[in-house]
Design goal:
- The complex is a heterodimer of chains A (282) and B (494).
- Chain A is mainly α and 282 residues long.
- Chain A is 75% helix and 0% strand.
- Chain A has a single domain, classed as Orthogonal Bundle (MetI-like fold), CATH 1.10.3720.10.
- Chain A contains eleven helices and no strands.
- In chain B, strands 1, 8, 9, 10, 11, 12, 13, 14, 15, 16 and 17 form an eleven-stranded mixed beta sheet that branches.
- Chain B starts with a helix and ends with a strand.
- The chains are: A mainly alpha (282), B alpha+beta (494).
- The A-B interface holds A 42-44, 46-47, 49, 63-65, 137-138, 220, 224-226, 238-240, 242-243 and B 221-222, 225, 241, 243-244, 246-247, 293, 296-297, 358, 360-362, 364-366, 368-369, 375-378.
């Protein structure tokens, strides 16, 4: 398939376009916040607390008089950083494990890897995340590690499943006949063919990471003050929801739209990459 | 249609029956509170939650605190004090029995005081009993307490929850089955949920007006708000979310009680840890703090600024807030003078209450403005007690000291903020010995000034007593002169 036709397919895919747009807005907001925010988020202005949206504060102010738009922009940084690193951890460890398990299908190594995965998978992830942060102290770093660990089995399983079917293909057989080793085949023939799947799953895991970070911050185990975080903004607004609802609505919307955007993007990418689905749609 | 009419008739009949039932005043109450006691022995733990449930309700002392903080007769009907102020002869009330039926007499008083002041006593406030040299039983209703030296606050000390009278017969299981002499008997404790107490029909004094009371433990502020709104609890003592009070105030179903507490809320500073061992650094911090912003931001305006460790409603209080007026420029200058022109980094460990969590964020921002960076860590109470209070592993922390008249803690160099001043310790020794009210007052003022000018801790504000109750519940304490939820005079208005 030529690049041109892929681009055309991408642009006509509604979920992909909307999802990409939403995601880019938040990534953009996070990037802009490095150079400019409407108001410094570490300076408190108690006299102006809980103001409803106005020209000076488009999304209003929180209980310390901080500008909520600025808080959301800087908070996006925390969410994105945690989710990206968590996906990188998951892919970095999960994909090699999955490839190895597929290459040595049925061996002891395969069993060990996959049962280990099952073990991690079987634990309620948020509970373990809470345990990790409870033992090592709450911080954004520990939240990243906690969320990252639970990405490993997701990627390992996905990679193994896809790789297993690839190992039966003729071109892999040809490569084996040509004398290539399992590592080389995995890298040269298997990995490039599972990349599409990994990108789609990565997008989904990214959105789940943002949700998990918000949940951990909400219970006070994510990024610590004064670093803004969407989850903690929600927690702070909890007792004030009846008289200052904007304090809860806007960070809630930020989480919702980002997760929605990433999920739409993931769906769109799947449509794009999976030839069977695309053919059906035509 | 006949069916519908019939149903309607039934409904109105039921309403009528229910209405008749409602007309009688309720005799039970559910009181919400945030913290659950770890066990039920007020004489062997510092946890204020124990007194919040049991003080005056189940346990009584020789004397007791009134709603205004005054010291009134309790189990002792009267007392004589010898001319030199060292011998107190207490006359006990006749016919007082413990809830298990045993008699309360002079032997029980001797047992309780001897137990509290013993070498191996685990009483959290052993200092209250330190001056006692001897307790003698004269006859079953007379007990004589001899002090090593006159102590002007002895009767006050005996009113504390840590000084209640317990019985040797029931002491073994006191932690799970407290047996006292109060107007209520302990009934049931469902751990993690509630404690029930019931009216004591054999009470020696004015009987309780309620038949049953339940203390329900709700730690989450949002859940507390919902429980009061839904009228699942009829009163909430120490309501954790000050931001919700205006809503209750505007609702005719509820009354909001705003009073004073003995809680000096302070930015506790580890006086032995560098750089806080330098008085200039502590003074700089004091000037970097804007108290009003903390009261407005963390407590939504509820609280009185303080400049020393003393309750503003006390007649001997001196307003020393001027010693640490908000002046960030002066703070920066003082920091430079102390050798920290670029500031420094320290830890700020915060326990769960909102005054600490929110106040901590505000203080962190105020300190950052003068160059002091703080690493905030939010701790649960157990962790806080372990790391900060016992382990002394902290730079700064925020906590409210709710014990009454507790300026004496500054005389203990091992207390967690580790202030060690011979001069202050001398003032406290003089105070204990002084019985003349004028001398005592002068010494108390001197003590307040000393710690204020030594900038031992950052003095923030006096915690307000914030309670919400059903509008028909009468007789609740508005102020909190000690940790207590005294229900003995509480009743429902018709």
């Amino acid at each position: 398939m030529s690049t041109g036709s892929l681009m055309r397919a991408a642009l006509t895919n509604r979920s992909l376009v909307i999802g990409l747009a939403l995601s880019l807005i938040f990534v953009g907001a996070a990037l802009i916040s490095f150079v400019w925010v409407p108001q410094d988020v570490t300076t408190l202005d108690i006299a102006n607390k809980m103001k409803t949206p106005s020209a000076a504060h488009p999304l209003g102010t929180d209980h310390f008089g901080r500008d909520i738009l600025s808080m959301i922009m800087v908070g996006a940084r925390t969410s994105i950083a945690v989710a990206v690193v968590a996906v990188v951890i998951g892919m970095g460890l999960g994909v090699p494990l999955g490839l190895a398990a597929a290459a040595r299908r049925g061996s002891l190594a395969d069993e060990v890897i996959m049962r280990g995965n099952d073990l991690v998978f079987a634990f309620p992830s948020l509970l373990i995340a809470i345990m990790i942060t409870a033992v090592f102290g709450p911080s954004a770093l520990n939240a990243i590690i906690a969320i990252g660990i639970f990405n490993i089995p997701v990627f390992a399983r996905l990679t193994r499943g896809a790789a297993l079917s690839l190992w039966t293909r003729d071109y892999v057989l040809a490569a084996r006949v040509a004398g290539k080793g399992a590592v080389r085949i995995s890298l040269e023939h298997i990995l490039p063919n599972v990349t599409n799947l990994l990108i789609v799953q990565g997008t989904i895991q990214f959105s789940l990471g943002i949700l998990a970070e918000a949940a951990l911050s909400y219970v006070g185990l994510g990024a610590q003050p004064p670093i803004p975080s969407w989850g903690r903004m929600l927690a702070d607004s909890q007792t004030m929801i009846s008289f200052a609802p904007h304090m809860a609505i806007f960070p809630g919307m930020a989480i919702l739209l980002t997760v929605l955007g990433l999920n739409l993007m993931g769906d769109g990418l799947r449509d794009l990459f999976d030839p069977r689905i695309r053919r059906d749609r035509r | 249609m006949t069916y519908l009419k019939f149903t309607r008739g039934m409904v109105s009949a039921l309403a009528l029956v229910a209405g008749v039932g409602m007309a009688q005043a309720k005799t039970d109450i559910v009181v919400g509170m945030q913290l659950e006691p770890p066990h039920l022995d007020p004489t062997s733990a510092a946890a204020g939650a124990i007194d919040s449930v049991l003080y005056a309700n189940v346990f009584e002392g020789l004397t007791r605190f009134g709603p205004d903080g005054s010291v009134n007769p309790g189990l002792a009907a009267s007392w004589d004090i010898s001319a030199d102020g060292t011998v107190y002869t207490f006359k006990l009330h006749d016919g007082v029995t413990f809830h298990d039926g045993t008699t309360m007499d002079a032997e029980d008083v001797k047992f309780s005081l001897d137990r509290a002041r013993a070498e191996d006593s685990v009483n959290a406030q052993k200092g209250l009993f330190a001056g006692i040299t001897d307790v003698t039983v004269i006859d079953p209703l007379t007990v004589q307490v001899t002090l090593g030296a006159p102590n002007g606050s002895f009767l006050f000390n005996m009113a504390w929850g840590d000084a209640v009278i317990v019985a040797p017969e029931s002491i073994e299981n006191i932690k799970t089955n407290p047996v006292g002499t109060g107007a209520f008997k302990f009934d049931n404790w469902v751990q993690g949920d509630r404690i029930d107490i019931v009216k004591n029909p054999d009470y020696w004094g004015e009987p309780a007006k309620l038949d049953r009371a339940t203390f329900k433990f709700i730690s989450d502020p949002t859940a507390a708000f919902a429980a009061v709104m839904a009228e699942d609890v009829h009163a909430f003592a120490g309501f954790p979310a000050p931001e919700n009070l205006p809503q209750f105030d505007a609702d005719p179903r509820f009354q909001v009680l705003i009073g004073s507490t003995e809680g000096e809320t302070i930015l506790s500073t580890n006086n032995k840890q560098a750089p806080f061992d330098n008085i200039k650094v502590r003074e700089a911090m004091a000037h970097a703090i804007d108290r009003q912003a903390i009261i407005d931001g963390a407590m939504f305006g509820y609280g009185t600024p303080i400049g020393t460790h003393f309750a503003p409603h006390n007649p001997d209080y001196v307003d020393l807030t001027g010693n640490s007026a908000y002046d960030p420029e002066k703070a920066k200058a003082l920091l430079a003078e102390a050798g920290f022109p670029d500031g420094f980094t320290t830890t700020l460990k915060l326990p769960p209450p909102s005054y600490a969590r929110r106040g901590g964020e505000i203080i962190a921002a105020q300190l950052r403005a003068v160059g002091i960076e703080t690493e905030i860590s939010n701790l649960e109470w157990a962790q806080w007690l372990e790391q900060v209070f016992t382990g002394k592993d902290f730079g700064l922390t925020i906590v409210s000291h709710t014990e009454p008249m507790d300026i004496g803690i500054y005389a203990n160099p091992d207390y967690y903020f580790q202030y060690d001043s011979a001069e202050f310790q001398k003032i406290m020794t003089d105070l204990t010995a002084a019985t003349d009210p004028a001398t005592r007052s002068a010494l108390l003022k001197q003590a307040q000034e000393k710690i204020s000018l030594d900038y031992v801790n950052g003095y923030l504000f006096q915690l307000a007593a914030l309670s919400v109750a059903n509008a028909k519940v009468m007789g609740l304490w508005k102020n909190a002169p000690t940790q207590a939820t005294d229900l003995t005079a509480v009743y429902w208005a018709d």
